[in-house]
Predict the structure of Methylthioribose-1-phosphate isomerase.
Amino acid sequence: MKINQAFFRTIWPVVEGGAVEIIDQTQLPHRLHIVRIENVEAMVHAIKHMQVRGAPLIGAAAAYGMALGIADGALDGDVERTGEVLLQSRPTAVNLRWAVQRMQRVLLALPEEERAVAAWREAAVICDEDVALNQAIGQHGLSMLRALASARGRGSAAQPLQILTHCNAGWLATVDWGTALAPIYAAHEAGLAVHVWVDETRPRNQGAALTAWELAQHGVPHTIISDNAGGHLMQHGKVDCVIVGADRVTASGDVCNKIGTYLKALAAHDNAVPFYAAVPSPTIDWSMQDGRREIPIEERDADEVHYMQGVTADGAVQRLRITPPGSAAANPAFDVTPARLVTGIITERGIASPAALHALFHTSD
């Protein structure tokens, strides 16, 4: 996608080899900072501290982390240990384990002397596949948005289709294009007028900081709202649909996404607003049925609640405490939206209700 009219991906190998570079998302929207990652420990730090984030991008980063981790040794034990180190970085996004296990499966099937080169090759394939999956999600989502716009008499400059999203599930959360934002980008490119309500997404403000930034870079009309405003907008007919991403979707269609998503789904259900999750197939965990009981929910550092980062009047980026000294803070990073509140799941194969998700992927196999 675009930054200052130049095309970027979120992660890429350094031309001379032996390292990868990433956009440091903790510096956005105030500063575009490129970080070079040269070993698996640095990649773990980047994942854990959210320099890279979003389920698909975490998977891509883990794939390159495997390549970095076996650069100096590719014995079976090296491959296994590198995977274990990466798996400790973040627990909720299923793409992390999916990518590590795929890399291990490919590498352990090869002679030791072929593994280092193969690791870089396979990581690049995973990245290219992610882009293709997200482009397909965009096209299926575009068909839905066109139908919705037609039914509601929207889609013109005077009456754009109104879409609400939560957290960041754009190209910054993937290798390119994004998941929840892919249909929005596709609609914008196709000339279907859309306007995006962007939840700020406390406590890390991925909506206000990241979604708004990338939509602005691409010229998509949008408005940032507080996390508590979505229900009010739905009550007053100002939201035509909700589209979110996910860090894990169960086989039954439960959607695990950034904390606060469940509340948006409840408001959407109460106001008959369609609620969609957009996910590539590696984000679907076919081994799980009950998201609330089975999905591990990451509890992040309380300081993310206590502090906020912003720009002062003189342009300096500062971190400020916003809570009283001595007050405790809890920081669950995700919640689970039950399948009963989900209108449809947008995938690279099409759109399915939660009840039809399994059939979408398995009846043709």
